[in-house]
Amino acid sequence: MRLTLHTDYALRVLMVLAATGERATIGAIADRYGISRNHLMKVVQRLVQLDLVRSDRGRGGGLRLARPADEIAIGAVVRLFEETGAFVECFEAGANRCRAAPACGLRRALAGALEAFLAHLDRITLADVMADAPHFAAALGLTPAPPLPSAAPSR
Amino acid sequence: MRLTLHTDYALRVLMVLAATGERATIGAIADRYGISRNHLMKVVQRLVQLDLVRSDRGRGGGLRLARPADEIAIGAVVRLFEETGAFVECFEAGANRCRAAPACGLRRALAGALEAFLAHLDRITLADVMADAPHFAAALGLTPAPPLPSAAPSR
Prior knowledge:
Two copies of one chain form a homodimer. Chain A is mainly α. Helices cover 46% and strands 5% of the residues of chain A.
């Protein structure tokens, strides 16, 4: 069980943008993490469409958060990026679908468990997971963001 | 995000054994579900080692549950079969590990969410997900198990 790469990368982009005081570029983020620029580009396009990230062109342009880090719930990001419709192969549409699926109580149990997973992350913001932003920025060689006026309590 | 095939298969084996009043064989279970016999064999070996399934040799032998279905928590099965150590690639040991991992608050957030996921399943038993056992057995062409003396309430 693991998050998809797209969710992972979406969270990484948001964390970089929360950590740094400068506009970032896709190339710079890919280099800092040592990950694929092509994969990252698709993720950033989606983040811009979802109004989580703003992309400005030209001199002084680049990527930045479209809203404050304490207003971005991790649960919301995971809900937008993660596909949970085929959480077990046997519930998929098509050839792999289990013959007993209509009479199987497992789907409801797993749906409830997934909702508990997401509900936990709904209560945690990007600011919460970036409580150690200065060290995070230093680890990636980023210019740190100025501290928030009032730091959100860690949950 | 999805369960691994081994967890999926482990749950399927337990559900078949809960649904049928007869001893089952690996071959018969693989045929009913239309899944790989080799994969299933490894999963059944693990279920026997974990004392969830009993395997008797010879005439009248085969597989059966090692304990009653209402004493097998789905959460326990998922905890035993699912590997969550690399829930996001960036926390893996080795080359894919993110440079910022030591200063990243995401791991704690995700660990809490995974625990909420599992805690939900800890409260649900194999008997709960098999509340519709007769239809489940019929869908797979199994001989239904006799009803439990007192059916556990559906959760």
